[in-house]
Specification:
The complex is a heterodimer of chains A (65) and B (233). Chain A has 65 residues and is mainly β. Chain A has strands spanning 3-14, 19-26, 31-37, 41-44, 47-50, 53-55. Chain B has five helices and 13 strands. The chains are: A mainly beta (65), B alpha+beta (233).
Chain lengths: 65, 233
């Protein structure tokens, strides 16, 4: 199953210290939710960047962005 | 007065010299050292490339990325197997690894997931010194690196022999934390960071390339940050 980069962060909800619940869009267009370490969200001039590679739930091939 | 070297050290020094002579020209021709028009922004880094590779963002924190498993390896249980196309295959424990010349180096870290971290202060041993122990065959062209979490990655031998490629066991003056690959991880400052395995457990010298975990899943086999070489062609 291909792992995709995140291209947009739709919602972030802090959990316990150092953790967050995130709803985000993968490069293939799928929107998924994950509980992740807070440091995966990096502020940039273009807005928050969610780093990491995440398996597409329906198995879309790797999208190169 | 010249200090006498032990026969073992003499063999390592001679093997390192042979490796350097064999690979130096190709090493100097690699993209991170030889690109005449590299992409990226900022002043030149110490090897002449723009400090921030294209598409990267500077991160103040240090995100933790892995396959979802963070092996707990006590220092006394650490083992590093050196295998494949080499004349002295062997397994090192931490004492054996850290008996090699220990170096400190400050380098940048570029993750394919578009964040970079500047000026990390590492302490460890150079890959070339570890390779010199194993004495790669003249036919060896690539290395295949395995980790205790099941992760694998591959890179050309000439990239691995660069002086800033370390098997690191300290960062920022502290033992390398488990989440960052401790007790020992490899770093490859001139390639995207996935080429440096956390929780390193095996280095295999190859006479032909073999793709690792991400390389088999659509990511670049070559991974040059200043060419934004993230994905397989």
């Amino acid at each position: 199953m291909a792992s995709q980069r995140a291209i947009a962060v739709h919602e972030v909800r802090p959990l316990s210290e150092g953790r967050m619940h995130v709803r985000f869009e993968l490069a293939c267009g799928c929107v998924i939710e994950r509980e992740l370490a807070s440091d995966r969200l990096i502020p940039t001039e273009d807005g928050p960047l969610l780093v990491g590679k995440y398996p597409c739930p329906v198995g879309h091939p790797l999208v190169r962005v | 007065m010249t200090e006498e070297l032990s026969p073992k050290t003499e063999r390592i020094v001679a093997a390192r010299q042979r490796l350097r002579e064999r690979c130096e020209a190709r090493l100097q021709a690699t993209p991170a050292l030889a690109d005449e028009a590299p992409q990226g922004t900022g002043p030149a880094n110490r090897h002449g490339m723009p400090r921030l590779p294209p598409g990267q963002h500077e991160a103040k924190g240090w995100p933790v990325l892995d396959l979802g498993i963070k092996p707990q390896i006590a220092l006394e249980d650490f083992r590093l197997e050196l295998a494949g196309a080499c004349s002295a295959p062997q397994t090192l424990d931490f004492a054996g690894l850290s008996a090699l010349p220990v170096v400190e180096d400050q380098s940048d870290f570029h993750c394919v997931t578009t964040w970079s971290k500047y000026d990390l202060r590492w302490r460890g041993v150079r890959f070339i010194d570890v390779a010199s122990l194993a004495q790669p065959a003249d036919e060896a062209t690539h290395v295949f690196v395995s980790a205790s979490d099941g992760y694998t990655t591959n890179l050309p031998l000439v990239e691995a022999l660069k002086g800033d490629v370390l098997l690191a066991f300290e960062v920022e003056g502290e033992p390398l934390a488990r989440e960052h690959g401790g007790p020992v991880r490899m770093i490859t400052p001139q390639l995207y960071a996935w080429k440096g395995a956390k929780w390193i457990s095996k280095i295999e010298f190859l006479t032909a390339d073999r793709r690792g975990f991400w390389e088999e899943r659509g990511y670049s086999n070559t991974a040059h940050p200043w060419r934004e070489d993230r994905y397989a062609k």
